[in-house]
Amino acid sequence: MSSLTDIEKRYLERVFGMGGGYVLDFTDATFGEFFGRHNIDIHGSKYRTYGSSKAKKLRAFWASEPDKRVGAVLSELLDSYEADCDLNGRNLDSGLLKKARGIAGRLNGRCSTPTSESTEGEFLTREFTIPNIQKLPIDTHVMSIVEARLDEARIALAAGAHLSVIFLCGSVLEAVLLGAAQQAPARFNQANATPKANDGSPKRFHEWSLAQLIDVACEIDVLKLDIKKFSHGLRDFRNYIHPYEQMASGFTPDEHTARVCFQVLKAALASLAGERR
User: Which pLDDT score is estimated for 255?
Assistant: First the structure.
Protein backbone atom coordinates (compact mmCIF):
# COMPACT_ATOMS: atom_id res chain seq x y z
CA MET A 1 0.00 0.00 0.00
CA SER A 2 1.11 3.59 -0.51
CA SER A 3 2.43 5.75 2.33
CA LEU A 4 -0.07 8.55 1.70
CA THR A 5 -1.08 10.15 4.99
CA ASP A 6 -4.65 11.15 5.84
CA ILE A 7 -3.75 14.83 5.44
CA GLU A 8 -2.16 14.20 2.04
CA LYS A 9 -5.25 12.34 0.88
CA ARG A 10 -7.40 15.30 1.90
CA TYR A 11 -5.33 17.63 -0.30
CA LEU A 12 -5.54 15.25 -3.24
CA GLU A 13 -9.27 14.73 -2.84
CA ARG A 14 -9.76 18.47 -2.93
CA VAL A 15 -7.72 19.07 -6.07
CA PHE A 16 -9.46 16.19 -7.88
CA GLY A 17 -12.95 17.24 -6.70
CA MET A 18 -13.74 13.81 -5.25
CA GLY A 19 -16.43 14.85 -2.75
CA GLY A 20 -19.34 13.71 -4.90
CA GLY A 21 -17.81 10.46 -6.09
CA TYR A 22 -16.25 12.05 -9.18
CA VAL A 23 -12.63 12.53 -10.23
CA LEU A 24 -12.08 15.72 -12.26
CA ASP A 25 -14.26 15.53 -15.39
CA PHE A 26 -13.59 11.85 -16.16
CA THR A 27 -16.42 9.63 -17.35
CA ASP A 28 -16.31 5.93 -16.49
CA ALA A 29 -14.95 5.25 -19.98
CA THR A 30 -12.22 7.91 -19.95
CA PHE A 31 -11.28 6.97 -16.38
CA GLY A 32 -10.76 3.40 -17.50
CA GLU A 33 -8.73 4.53 -20.51
CA PHE A 34 -6.56 6.77 -18.33
CA PHE A 35 -5.63 3.93 -15.97
CA GLY A 36 -5.33 1.54 -18.90
CA ARG A 37 -2.30 3.54 -20.06
CA HIS A 38 -0.68 2.51 -16.78
CA ASN A 39 -1.74 -1.13 -17.26
CA ILE A 40 -4.29 -0.84 -14.45
CA ASP A 41 -7.85 -2.16 -14.64
CA ILE A 42 -9.37 0.49 -12.37
CA HIS A 43 -12.88 -0.88 -12.91
CA GLY A 44 -11.85 -4.36 -11.80
CA SER A 45 -12.93 -5.98 -8.53
CA LYS A 46 -9.58 -5.19 -6.89
CA TYR A 47 -10.48 -1.51 -6.69
CA ARG A 48 -14.13 -1.87 -5.64
CA THR A 49 -13.27 -2.27 -1.96
CA TYR A 50 -15.10 0.91 -0.95
CA GLY A 51 -17.68 1.09 -3.74
CA SER A 52 -18.15 1.64 -7.47
CA SER A 53 -17.76 5.41 -7.93
CA LYS A 54 -14.62 6.77 -9.54
CA ALA A 55 -13.57 8.49 -6.32
CA LYS A 56 -13.96 5.31 -4.29
CA LYS A 57 -11.96 3.32 -6.83
CA LEU A 58 -9.18 5.91 -6.70
CA ARG A 59 -9.12 5.66 -2.89
CA ALA A 60 -8.87 1.88 -3.16
CA PHE A 61 -6.01 2.31 -5.65
CA TRP A 62 -4.15 4.52 -3.15
CA ALA A 63 -4.71 1.94 -0.42
CA SER A 64 -3.52 -1.09 -2.35
CA GLU A 65 -0.64 0.01 -4.60
CA PRO A 66 2.99 0.96 -3.79
CA ASP A 67 4.30 4.52 -3.72
CA LYS A 68 5.96 4.52 -7.14
CA ARG A 69 2.86 3.34 -8.94
CA VAL A 70 0.57 5.75 -7.09
CA GLY A 71 3.03 8.61 -7.63
CA ALA A 72 3.16 8.03 -11.39
CA VAL A 73 -0.64 8.04 -11.67
CA LEU A 74 -0.97 11.12 -9.44
CA SER A 75 1.53 13.07 -11.54
CA GLU A 76 -0.50 12.46 -14.69
CA LEU A 77 -3.80 13.18 -12.92
CA LEU A 78 -2.37 16.53 -11.80
CA ASP A 79 -1.41 17.24 -15.42
CA SER A 80 -5.05 16.55 -16.30
CA TYR A 81 -6.24 18.95 -13.58
CA GLU A 82 -3.95 21.69 -14.89
CA ALA A 83 -5.01 21.13 -18.49
CA ASP A 84 -8.69 21.03 -17.52
CA CYS A 85 -8.42 24.41 -15.79
CA ASP A 86 -6.58 25.91 -18.76
CA LEU A 87 -8.88 24.57 -21.47
CA ASN A 88 -12.13 25.36 -19.65
CA GLY A 89 -11.16 28.73 -18.25
CA ARG A 90 -11.42 27.56 -14.65
CA ASN A 91 -9.46 29.09 -11.81
CA LEU A 92 -6.38 27.03 -11.04
CA ASP A 93 -5.49 26.85 -7.35
CA SER A 94 -1.73 27.19 -7.71
CA GLY A 95 -1.07 26.70 -3.99
CA LEU A 96 -3.09 23.51 -3.88
CA LEU A 97 -1.49 22.25 -7.08
CA LYS A 98 2.01 22.91 -5.70
CA LYS A 99 1.12 21.00 -2.56
CA ALA A 100 -0.25 18.08 -4.58
CA ARG A 101 2.83 18.06 -6.85
CA GLY A 102 4.99 17.82 -3.74
CA ILE A 103 3.00 14.80 -2.54
CA ALA A 104 3.35 13.07 -5.91
CA GLY A 105 7.04 13.93 -5.94
CA ARG A 106 7.54 12.37 -2.53
CA LEU A 107 5.93 9.13 -3.69
CA ASN A 108 8.13 9.17 -6.79
CA GLY A 109 11.25 9.66 -4.65
CA ARG A 110 11.79 13.27 -5.73
CA CYS A 111 11.00 14.98 -2.44
CA SER A 112 12.81 18.31 -2.76
CA THR A 113 10.15 20.26 -0.88
CA PRO A 114 8.87 19.79 2.67
CA THR A 115 6.32 17.00 2.98
CA SER A 116 2.99 17.40 4.72
CA GLU A 117 4.46 15.55 7.70
CA SER A 118 7.21 18.13 8.20
CA THR A 119 4.72 20.95 7.76
CA GLU A 120 2.46 19.34 10.33
CA GLY A 121 5.45 18.85 12.61
CA GLU A 122 6.33 22.51 12.51
CA PHE A 123 2.71 23.44 13.17
CA LEU A 124 2.42 21.01 16.08
CA THR A 125 5.52 22.41 17.82
CA ARG A 126 4.12 25.94 17.94
CA GLU A 127 2.69 27.05 21.26
CA PHE A 128 -0.99 28.00 21.30
CA THR A 129 -2.96 28.54 24.47
CA ILE A 130 -6.74 28.37 24.52
CA PRO A 131 -7.77 31.95 25.32
CA ASN A 132 -10.21 33.10 27.95
CA ILE A 133 -13.65 32.12 26.64
CA GLN A 134 -14.84 35.65 27.36
CA LYS A 135 -12.54 36.94 24.60
CA LEU A 136 -14.12 34.78 21.90
CA PRO A 137 -16.73 36.27 19.53
CA ILE A 138 -19.63 34.14 20.71
CA ASP A 139 -22.93 34.83 22.41
CA THR A 140 -22.77 34.68 26.20
CA HIS A 141 -25.45 31.98 26.23
CA VAL A 142 -23.19 29.68 24.17
CA MET A 143 -20.01 30.21 26.18
CA SER A 144 -20.77 27.52 28.74
CA ILE A 145 -21.45 24.97 25.98
CA VAL A 146 -18.22 25.84 24.15
CA GLU A 147 -16.24 25.63 27.38
CA ALA A 148 -17.78 22.24 28.21
CA ARG A 149 -16.90 20.89 24.76
CA LEU A 150 -13.31 22.10 25.09
CA ASP A 151 -13.02 20.33 28.45
CA GLU A 152 -14.52 17.18 26.94
CA ALA A 153 -12.08 17.35 24.00
CA ARG A 154 -9.16 17.42 26.44
CA ILE A 155 -10.55 14.39 28.30
CA ALA A 156 -11.16 12.53 25.02
CA LEU A 157 -7.62 13.25 23.83
CA ALA A 158 -6.13 11.89 27.05
CA ALA A 159 -8.39 8.83 26.88
CA GLY A 160 -7.48 7.99 23.29
CA ALA A 161 -10.99 8.72 21.98
CA HIS A 162 -9.58 10.14 18.77
CA LEU A 163 -12.76 10.36 16.71
CA SER A 164 -14.54 12.17 19.56
CA VAL A 165 -11.73 14.75 19.66
CA ILE A 166 -12.19 15.46 15.96
CA PHE A 167 -15.96 15.90 16.21
CA LEU A 168 -15.72 18.11 19.31
CA CYS A 169 -13.01 20.32 17.79
CA GLY A 170 -14.99 20.73 14.56
CA SER A 171 -18.17 21.70 16.40
CA VAL A 172 -16.39 24.31 18.53
CA LEU A 173 -14.61 25.82 15.52
CA GLU A 174 -17.88 26.13 13.62
CA ALA A 175 -19.65 27.73 16.59
CA VAL A 176 -16.93 30.32 17.13
CA LEU A 177 -16.61 31.21 13.43
CA LEU A 178 -20.38 31.60 13.21
CA GLY A 179 -20.22 33.90 16.22
CA ALA A 180 -17.46 35.92 14.56
CA ALA A 181 -19.60 36.31 11.44
CA GLN A 182 -22.61 37.44 13.46
CA GLN A 183 -20.52 40.06 15.24
CA ALA A 184 -19.01 41.44 12.02
CA PRO A 185 -21.71 40.85 9.37
CA ALA A 186 -20.53 43.55 6.96
CA ARG A 187 -16.98 42.16 6.73
CA PHE A 188 -18.12 38.55 6.29
CA ASN A 189 -20.85 39.43 3.76
CA GLN A 190 -18.61 41.53 1.52
CA ALA A 191 -15.78 39.05 0.98
CA ASN A 192 -15.09 37.49 -2.41
CA ALA A 193 -15.63 34.03 -0.93
CA THR A 194 -18.99 34.91 0.63
CA PRO A 195 -21.54 32.25 -0.42
CA LYS A 196 -24.44 33.66 -2.43
CA ALA A 197 -28.10 32.75 -2.66
CA ASN A 198 -29.81 32.30 -6.05
CA ASP A 199 -30.68 36.00 -6.20
CA GLY A 200 -27.03 37.00 -5.68
CA SER A 201 -27.43 38.16 -2.10
CA PRO A 202 -25.24 36.73 0.69
CA LYS A 203 -26.62 33.60 2.27
CA ARG A 204 -27.75 33.84 5.87
CA PHE A 205 -24.97 32.86 8.22
CA HIS A 206 -26.70 29.74 9.53
CA GLU A 207 -26.73 28.46 5.91
CA TRP A 208 -22.95 28.72 5.56
CA SER A 209 -20.88 25.55 5.65
CA LEU A 210 -17.83 25.28 7.88
CA ALA A 211 -15.64 25.39 4.76
CA GLN A 212 -17.20 28.71 3.73
CA LEU A 213 -16.76 30.17 7.20
CA ILE A 214 -13.09 29.17 7.15
CA ASP A 215 -12.45 30.62 3.67
CA VAL A 216 -14.08 33.97 4.41
CA ALA A 217 -12.46 34.24 7.86
CA CYS A 218 -9.07 33.81 6.22
CA GLU A 219 -9.83 36.26 3.42
CA ILE A 220 -10.73 39.04 5.87
CA ASP A 221 -7.72 38.15 8.05
CA VAL A 222 -9.66 36.75 10.99
CA LEU A 223 -7.74 33.49 10.53
CA LYS A 224 -4.14 33.25 9.39
CA LEU A 225 -3.32 31.32 6.19
CA ASP A 226 -1.58 28.39 7.88
CA ILE A 227 -4.51 27.97 10.25
CA LYS A 228 -6.87 27.99 7.26
CA LYS A 229 -4.96 25.13 5.64
CA PHE A 230 -5.15 22.87 8.66
CA SER A 231 -8.70 24.00 9.51
CA HIS A 232 -9.89 22.53 6.22
CA GLY A 233 -8.27 19.26 7.25
CA LEU A 234 -10.23 19.34 10.49
CA ARG A 235 -13.39 20.16 8.53
CA ASP A 236 -12.84 17.17 6.24
CA PHE A 237 -12.18 14.77 9.12
CA ARG A 238 -15.27 15.99 10.95
CA ASN A 239 -17.38 14.91 7.96
CA TYR A 240 -16.71 11.31 9.01
CA ILE A 241 -19.43 11.70 11.62
CA HIS A 242 -21.34 9.82 8.91
CA PRO A 243 -20.22 6.16 9.20
CA TYR A 244 -20.63 5.46 5.49
CA GLU A 245 -18.34 8.39 4.62
CA GLN A 246 -15.70 6.98 6.93
CA MET A 247 -16.10 3.50 5.46
CA ALA A 248 -15.85 4.81 1.89
CA SER A 249 -12.63 6.68 2.57
CA GLY A 250 -10.99 4.02 4.70
CA PHE A 251 -10.18 6.72 7.25
CA THR A 252 -8.98 5.52 10.67
CA PRO A 253 -8.36 8.32 13.19
CA ASP A 254 -5.24 8.00 15.32
CA GLU A 255 -3.54 10.00 18.05
CA HIS A 256 -1.56 12.10 15.57
CA THR A 257 -4.70 13.13 13.67
CA ALA A 258 -6.49 14.00 16.93
CA ARG A 259 -3.57 16.11 18.14
CA VAL A 260 -3.38 17.98 14.82
CA CYS A 261 -7.10 18.76 15.07
CA PHE A 262 -6.82 19.96 18.66
CA GLN A 263 -3.82 22.11 17.74
CA VAL A 264 -5.81 23.59 14.84
CA LEU A 265 -8.62 24.51 17.20
CA LYS A 266 -6.26 26.12 19.72
CA ALA A 267 -4.56 28.13 16.98
CA ALA A 268 -7.88 29.27 15.51
CA LEU A 269 -9.26 30.30 18.89
CA ALA A 270 -6.09 32.25 19.68
CA SER A 271 -6.40 34.03 16.34
CA LEU A 272 -10.09 34.80 16.84
CA ALA A 273 -9.36 36.18 20.31
CA GLY A 274 -6.68 38.47 18.88
CA GLU A 275 -3.80 36.52 20.41
CA ARG A 276 -1.85 35.81 17.19
CA ARG A 277 1.61 34.28 17.23
Answer: 86
